[in-house]
Amino acid sequence: MAKSSEKNVQSVKGMRDILPEEHLLWEKFFSNFRELCNFYNFRLISTPLVEDVALFQKSSGEGSDVVDKEMYMVKAKGSSKQLALRPEGTASVVRAYIQHGMKQQPHPVKLAYYGPFFRHDKPQFGRYRQFYQIGLETFSAKNNPLYDAQVILAAYRFLESLKITGVVIQINSIGCKACRPKYLKELVAYYKKHKKDICGDCKDRLAKNPLRLLDCKKDKCKEIKVGAPMTFENLCTECKGHFKSVLEYLEELQLPYNLNHTLVRGLDYYSKTVFEFTLEPVEGEESFEGLSLGGGGRYDYLVEMFGGKHTPAVGLALGIDRVLEVIKKRELNIPTRPKDKVFLIHIGELAKRKSLVLIEELRKAKINVREALGKESLGVQLKIADKLGVKLALIFGQKEAFEESIIIRNMATGAQETVPIRSLAKTIKKHI
RNA sequence: GUGCCUGUAGCUCAGUGGUAGAGCUCCGCUCUGUGGCAGCGGUGGCGCGGGUUCAAUUCCCGUCAGGCACCCCA
User: Fold this and answer.
1) pLDDT tens-digit profile of A167-214?
2) CB atoms inside a 10 Å sphere around CB A405
3) Whole-structure pTM over 0.95, yes or no?
């Protein structure tokens, strides 16, 4: 379609079309995901794209950009309720867990989801305003570190199934209700001493979200960071034990992790374990540095925050768009449309009229037939058949239509045989 | 949200202050019952809006979209 003849005929910023060729890759992605869910016993759940805005404000917390600045708001007709396009999945899954009384189900309750999410961010590589995630969540009676390891394992295996190599699990613990406030106090106190030396952004972070201070990439802030109190040293005994145990599981599973003391997460509801999936730089490859394929962590307080019974949980999300970008850039076994094997060529009105019925007959025999019924010339149709790379061309002309026969042509050798239409399906199957 | 760069055909890209071309693709013909090759022809475009100018695709401004960095995150 011409771009200029009409105004505004384009997708809006940060949102794109997924074209047929790319859909093959998405299909593969989803089939691997379903297989994974099946194997690790995560059951699929779908929640609405639109939720009460309070859901996200409460869970993700004020001070997070995702909720404060990037949420798409939706006007609800005839109601004062503020709605939002979901910016992430965990809050909705927790809401559904409570709403449908899943606490009555045998635990752990393991749920999986996929679908689009919305954040009004500035688009960049692997960053869209409508983006797609898959997610895994595990609700359990106790905050067993085994489940932390298991969601990480599942996600890692999933990336492995897509042939993505060099995945490293960045992992940290940010403590619990008991130890985090104390740690934050120390952190803030430390940074206050250096306030005049840190960047403007960090001054903001100091007030709003001190954990993120550890994330700053500015050189002068990095220097200061070296002396900052680290999360790990300030964990309470329980958190320390939990974290140690998670790491032991990862080692047992031989998963490559990197103890990253500065890893913190953008959403407020996390406690204890937090992690992200990143890629090791590869020689000769455009770096995916800083690109997180996914992340997650433990959120032991979220269920009770929404009025449910205290239920520890751990979960993660992977960015589908990002994973697929990596696959495309690395040119990893990108699926192509399976080659069609049979092409029907018609000549003349009678044959054309009978063609649709003939194709239906073959469909019943599970034979996929392609055609170009809009064309008339035999030569052109053969050319198309050739371009499609089919194995057999069926030539159906005036004479054949009248005699209820058809010519089967082997496209590679040019050998032809005439068979009665009655036995066509059988003969085709012999050839392919 | 901030800064820098980019925008010519479906795709990859030339080019110019006097309204544009190539390769590939697509469609047709040579070839109306036999494809791969080749030849010929055709469709189709200066992102949008405004300004400067006799004249703007070209210069300027705005806008939209894309890319990169920051920010943030998946």
Assistant:
1) 999 999 999 988 888 888 888 888 888 887 777 777 777 877 788 888
2) 17
3) no
CA-CA distance, A64 to A70, in Å (whole number)? 9
- Residue A113 to residue A295: CA distance in whole angstroms: 15
Residues A145/A97, Cβ–Cβ less than 8 Å: no
CA gap A131, A324 in Å, rounded: 12
Residues A216, A204: Cα–Cα separation, whole Å: 12
Nearest nt to A396, CA vs C1'?
Answer: B33
> Comparing C-alpha atoms, which of A165, A119, A115, A199 is closest to residue A327?
A165
Rama region for A166: left / alpha / beta (φ>0; ψ in -120 to 50; rest): left
Rounded to whole angstroms, the Cα distance separating A46 from A33 reads 15
Q: What is the ipTM of this complex?
A: 0.87
Which nucleotide has the least CA–C1' distance to A65?
B72
Name the nucleotide nearest A400; use CA and C1'. B33
User: Which positions of strand B lie within 7 Å of protein CB atoms?
Assistant: 1-3, 9-10, 26, 28-29, 31-36, 44-48, 64-74
* b/e per residue A255-294 (b: at least 16 CB within 10 A): bebeebebbbbbbbbbbbbbbbbbbeeeeeeeebeebbbb
Distance, Å, A127 CA → B11 C1': 24
Q: Which residue has the tokens 């809401």?
A: A95
The rounded distance, in Å, linking the Cα atoms of A432 and A428 is 6
The whole-number Å distance from A83's CA to B49's C1' is 35
Pairwise CA distance, residues A179 & A236, whole Å: 5
- A313-369 pLDDT, tens per residue? 999 999 999 999 999 888 787 777 778 899 999 999 999 999 999 999 999 999 999
Q: Is A24 exposed, middle or buried (0-12, 13-18, 19+ CB in 10 A)?
A: middle
Q: What is the pLDDT of residue A226?
A: 79
